[in-house]
């Protein structure tokens, strides 16, 4: 018996460049003291007050089937959060609660792409983007955003591939680069989407982690609300990665169809987890600030250490929990640098090549370990780069 082409071709070539990550995990499992600067997992856990709310809800009996679109209270809370932040009128009818941001991405593509449709996305990209597009039968097409432009995508590069495409996926604040798209960048993207009749999917899961500038949702730009689907999540803003609760925000008619999709796929999110998310959102920005504070500190640590040497170049860390480091002065590719650093110092980073081609010669560092260990690991990385460049 054979499996479907769709499932066996989600990630052509195997791991999509994540060999270093898997190697690091294997070493750690074998008992090696690997320092992981790889994935976006907070070193702090979900706040105890959120867990208390989850516990109270579960003990209170909210453990059966919950409303598939999400509880009315949570949908309204998410809508209020979005309206407050963007100024765009948003109601519960514009919100579908999903099992995390990844499920929201998959749902969004199901809403707008048919089999064989071309779906554009920006390179460097979050690792699951092309596989998600293939998973709904779409054809992924990467649009490069280069370090010389601060990883800001250019409208002319999107325009080159826009004819005949159905959609464009963007992510700001950006994983893996740390770029926060400017108003000019987003307006150019919006103009291109309108001119080419593209749907826009805007992945905004890092919207609470902005260090320079400000976050602008493209849904708030003129004539974009009816062609934009926004993906959000509690994972990064509230350190609720394992709880798996996110959302899609979009036109009411699209959300109505996505509710039907959820009925036939995920069948919703557990009620006690939704209640915990509702509590967390009710705590407002003070709790979000507690969650984001470590990354703001480590951004400063990173910039200070980079300023004391001249081998590794840092790309602007404007948002998110990552630093994209240019290691081309060592003469190594990002892949080779990351492998050698792991082999010689048991420090695991992600090669820029893991996220496409535009960040070749870079490594991504996740600022997700305690300050002291992070400082030591980053200094070792910089000393290693200096030795390799000598």
TrEMBL record:
InterPro entries: Aminotransferase_I/II_large (IPR004839), AspAT/PAT-like (IPR050596), NHTrfase_class1_PyrdxlP-BS (IPR004838), PyrdxlP-dep_Trfase (IPR015424), PyrdxlP-dep_Trfase_major (IPR015421). Its cofactor is pyridoxal 5'-phosphate. The keyword tRNA processing does not apply. The keyword Cell cycle does not apply. Keywords: Aminotransferase, Pyridoxal phosphate, Pyruvate, Transferase. Its EC number is 2.6.1.-. GO terms for biological process: amino acid metabolic process. Residues 34-380 form the Aminotransferase class I/classII large domain. It catalyses: L-aspartate + 2-oxoglutarate = oxaloacetate + L-glutamate. GO terms for molecular function: L-aspartate:2-oxoglutarate aminotransferase activity; pyridoxal phosphate binding. Belongs to the class-I pyridoxal-phosphate-dependent aminotransferase family. This is Aminotransferase. It comes from Octadecabacter temperatus. The gene is aruH.
């Amino acid at each position: 018996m054979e499996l479907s082409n769709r499932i066996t071709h989600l990630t052509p070539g195997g791991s999509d460049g994540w060999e270093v990550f898997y190697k690091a995990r294997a070493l750690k499992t074998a008992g090696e003291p690997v320092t992981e600067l790889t994935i976006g997992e907070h070193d702090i856990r979900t706040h105890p007050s959120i867990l208390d709310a989850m516990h109270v809800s579960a003990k209170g009996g909210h453990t059966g089937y919950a409303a598939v679109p999400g509880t009315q209270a949570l949908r309204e809370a998410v809508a209020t959060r979005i309206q407050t932040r963007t100024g765009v009128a948003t109601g519960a009818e514009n919100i579908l609660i999903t099992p995390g941001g990844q499920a929201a991405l998959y749902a969004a593509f199901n809403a707008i792409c048919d089999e064989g449709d071309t779906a554009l996305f920006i390179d460097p990209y979050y690792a699951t983007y092309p596989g998600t597009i293939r998973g709904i039968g779409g054809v992924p097409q990467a649009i490069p955003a280069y370090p010389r432009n601060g990883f800001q995508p250019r409208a002319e590069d999107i325009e080159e591939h826009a004819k005949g495409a159905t959609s464009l996926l963007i992510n700001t604040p950006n994983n893996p680069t740390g770029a926060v798209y400017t108003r000019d960048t987003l307006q150019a993207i919006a103009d291109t989407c309108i001119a080419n009749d593209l749907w826009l999917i805007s992945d905004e899961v890092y919207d609470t982690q902005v260090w320079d500038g400000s976050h602008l949702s493209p849904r708030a730009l003129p004539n974009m609300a009816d062609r934009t689907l926004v993906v959000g999540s509690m994972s990064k803003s509230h350190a609720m990665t394992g709880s798996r609760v996110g959302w899609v925000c979009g036109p009411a008619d699209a959300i109505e169809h996505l509710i039907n999709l959820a009925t036939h796929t995920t069948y919703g999110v557990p009620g006690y987890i939704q209640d915990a998310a509702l509590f967390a959102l009710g705590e407002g920005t003070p709790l979000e600030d507690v969650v984001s504070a470590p990354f703001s500190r480590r951004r400063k640590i990173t910039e200070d250490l980079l300023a004391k040497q001249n081998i590794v170049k840092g790309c602007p860390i404007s948002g998110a929990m990552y630093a994209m480091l240019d290691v081309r002065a060592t003469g190594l590719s990002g892949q080779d640098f990351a492998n050698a650093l792991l082999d010689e110092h048991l420090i695991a980073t992600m090669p820029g090549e893991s996220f496409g081609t535009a960040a070749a010669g870079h490594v991504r560092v996740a600022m997700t370990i305690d300050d002291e260990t992070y400082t030591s690991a980053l200094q070792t990385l910089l000393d290693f780069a200096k030795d390799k460049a000598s």
